Amino acid sequence: MKNALHVKELEEFLKKQQLVSTQDLLNFYHQFNPELPISTLRWRIYELKQQGIIYSPMRGEYLAIISK
């Protein structure tokens, strides 16, 4: 499962971006799977939120949760 989420790559991506949109995440995941449907992206966002990797301060916008 973690391979599908590309957590390490996502963390590097999020270090460069303060706030990312759903479209930004879709563009990020299209690097690995150009045909990724939006429904799969929504599921990945849900998983990332459940794992404490990202959170959503506003609908459709996401920030990384910085772990120390």
Question: Can you offer a commentary on this structure?
Answer:
By secondary structure, the chain is an alpha+beta fold. The chain has one domain (2-64): Orthogonal Bundle (Arc Repressor Mutant, subunit A). The protein is 53% helix and 16% strand. The protein contains 4 helices and 3 strands, in the order ααβααββ. It has a 3-stranded antiparallel β-sheet with strand order 1-3-2. The chain starts with a helix and ends with a strand.
Summing up helix and strand content along with how strands pair, one would put the structural category as alpha+beta
Overall number of structural domains: 1
Describe the largest sheet: 3 strands, antiparallel
User: What's the tally of helices?
Assistant: 4
Shape: globular
* CATH third-level topology: Arc Repressor Mutant, subunit A
Q: pLDDT below 50 for ≥5 consecutive residues: which ranges? A: none
Q: How large a portion of the residues is in β-strands, by DSSP E?
A: 15-25%
From the alpha-carbon coordinates, what is the Rg to the nearest angstrom?
11 Å
Notable features of this structure?
single chain; 68 residues; Arc Repressor Mutant, subunit A; 4 helices; globular
Summarize the structure.
This protein has 68 residues and is α+β, with helices and mostly antiparallel strands.
Topology of this structure?
Blueprint: H1 2-5, H2 7-16, E1 20-21, H3 22-30, H4 38-50, E2 54-58, E3 61-64
Antiparallel strand pairs: 1-3, 2-3
